[in-house]
Write a structure and sequence with these properties.
The structure holds two protein chains of two kinds. Chain A is mainly alpha-helical. Chain A has helices at 2-21, 25-51, 62-65, 75-97, 103-126. Chain B has six helices and no strands. The chains are: A mainly alpha, B mainly alpha. The A-B interface holds A 30, 33-34, 37, 90, 93-95, 97-98, 103-104, 106-107, 110-111, 113-122, 125, 130-139 and B 3, 6-7, 10-11, 13-15, 70, 73-74, 76-77, 80-81, 84, 128, 131-133, 135-137, 141, 144-146, 148-153, 155-160, 163, 169-170.
Chain lengths: 140, 173
């Protein structure tokens, strides 16, 4: 499960580069910062996997991820893709929580889940929607 | 699916998981692990924080210290969190604790909307950190998903409050 979430974080970092290319101004700045956060998440999860004696998956070249991304021709489409991506990341981390036995591992994944929820709220705000919409943010 | 339908679905899912998880799992502290708080104690700790936030938004709305639309949304969310935690605790035969003392510095924070938002950011951030502590040590793993979904909601409250405070949306403590 941790390997799969780590691979997802690598893909998300690549996706945010593509999303950022469609955005302008402040939104583009947030895209760069969220992309950096996804890379940091992948690194934190890789450390956890190594501590558990496993080998984390590495990132792939951006062109290998690109065919998996939604088509984005403008800012609205990019933000819709970003919201979908972050919803899935929230869900993946909440589900990963249930598979982890150690307190340190669970804490790390809980911290990352909170950051993904923040990223989703930022995307919602950039889309002109309320940043906080649900009492229970489970992701999709 | 409309936003309202999505909200309803997430709320049902969160509450159902919270209640179902509590009913299914053993929440009582085993003797061998007496040094660590029991799951019930951890849930009570979270409930106190959620009551505190609900009271905070009620007061802010009454004093016009928050945009009414945002204030009502956040208050509704806190009430949902309280309801879920209370039902889980009731299923274990526990009474719900209530926060009766307002947090310090509240009076000054109600003086302006930006000031209140910054004050609320601190309390919401403290609540998110407490959820993370609880999620790390909870014994009943069936509660992890529903409690996690409250934590993620609270993390989004922080972003909404940063927005009205005119702060960077991704600011770090």
């Amino acid at each position: 499960m941790l390997r799969s979430v780590t691979a997802f974080e690598h893909a998300a970092a690549a996706a945010w580069v593509a999303i950022g290319e469609q955005l302008r101004g402040d939104a583009r700045g947030y895209a760069r910062r969220i992309q950096a956060r996804e890379e940091e998440h992948a690194e934190r999860l890789s450390t956890l996997i190594r501590e558990l004696g496993g080998e984390p998956p590495g990132g792939r070249p951006p062109e290998e991820y690109a065919p998996q991304f939604a088509r984005m021709h403008n800012e609205d489409e990019a933000l819709r893709f970003a919201a979908d991506l972050e919803e899935r990341l929230v869900r993946a981390h909440l589900h990963a929580l249930q598979t982890l036995p150690g307190a340190d591992q669970r804490r790390t994944v809980a911290e990352i889940a909170a950051e993904e929820a923040e990223d989703l709220a930022v995307v919602q705000a950039l889309s002109g929607e309320p940043a906080a919409q649900l009492a229970f943010v489970t992701g999709t | 699916m409309t936003g309202e339908e999505k909200n309803l679905l997430a709320r049902r899912e969160g509450l159902a998981l919270l209640i179902g998880g509590a009913a299914a799992g053993a929440l009582i502290r085993p003797r061998a692990a007496a040094a660590q708080p029991s799951d019930v104690e951890q849930l009570e700790r979270l409930l106190v924080l959620e009551h505190r936030l609900a009271s905070l938004y009620e007061l802010a709305l009454a004093r016009d210290a928050i945009d009414p639309r945002l204030g009502r949304t956040l208050l509704d969310h806190e009430r949902e969190h309280v309801r879920g935690l209370e039902q889980t605790l009731r299923a274990r035969g526990r009474r719900s604790p209530r926060a009766t003392v307002p947090p310090p510095r509240l009076g000054a924070a109600l003086g302006s909307r930006a000031g209140f938002a910054r004050f609320a950011i601190d309390l919401e951030s403290e609540t998110v950190s407490t959820y993370q502590e609880v999620l790390a040590t909870l014994r009943n793993t069936r509660l992890l998903l529903p409690l996690g979904s409250i934590m993620t909601s609270s993390a989004q409250h922080v972003v909404a409050l940063r927005e009205v405070a005119g702060e960077d949306l991704l600011a770090r403590p």
